[in-house]
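Protocol step 4 of 6: structure prediction from sequence.
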Amino acid sequence: MAKRRKAKKWIIAWVLLGVLAIVLICFLNGLRPVSSNSKSRKTYIRYEKSLRLSTALIEFEKQGYVRSSLAARILALIERRPTVVPAGSYAVSPGMDAEQILRQLRNPVTLLLRLPETNWANRTAHLLANYDVVSADEYMKLVHDPSAFSKDVSFPLPKDSLEGYLYPKKYDLPPLYGARRVILEQLKEFEKSVWNGPDRPKDLKRTLIVASLVQLESGKDYDRPMIAGVIENRLKQKMPLQIDATILYALQKWRRLNFKDYHGVQSPYNTYTVKGLPPGPICSPDAKDIEAALHPAKHKYLYYVALPDGRSIYAATYKEHLKNIAIRKAAIKGLKS
């Protein structure tokens, strides 16, 4: 009888060990990556507000990012992980194991992205799309709907496009941030730096148009007010501005212009064929460009040409301008030799 009881205990012990082994195997298997490809593409997930870790892990299991939400939750408990996932964007992939997923959920993704002065809105839209911040179409749809932001800012907005009002700087723009948030941050920065700045423009739209031309035409800070002065001198004499950047804006392409472009591009932005300022800004000017537009240099120059080092040289007559062009060609030839 005693032997039977002893054998029974051994059987129970072995069964319990077997059950524990199965549980442990299932637990460890639940922590493995869903995909064997450790280099599988990351996907961004965004939470607009904080949520419980358990809820996030259950969603991840449904979406195919963790094998077992239960196993991941047990691991989080063992490791004393935070029980709340902060609002923000997170990068995950089926190639991550549960430990890596839990590590990702500790801190939202940050992305410091420079939105350059030289960009017009469509170029910025594609830059943002390349970093999964917004879709280009979503961004451009709101750029062409200024009324959507009329209650958010204190300065007058144009009717058809926010081009020129999208202030350039480095922003923290995490993936899936959304077009409205991005544009609102740019407009708020414009409000702070320009509208509430030390020198508020009286004619805001005109100032931004001139400032955008200055931005794309100047290579050095010194040249900003000088080129602004050339623009004003040409306008006073009713001369076409003949600014290449306006044609590029009309084309919505950044490329080398050919001879046919100058008179073949039919657009109000072609300042070779249409006199006066273009109908709107052609990029996102910053405070220095706007200052130059508000305070152009007083001089007699009507022409300028850029040298390879970025600075410009100026001429009051076309004959002088031709000499400056020769200087530019010689400088370029010197670089190639």
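Step 5 (inspection) to follow. The chain has 13 helices and eight strands.
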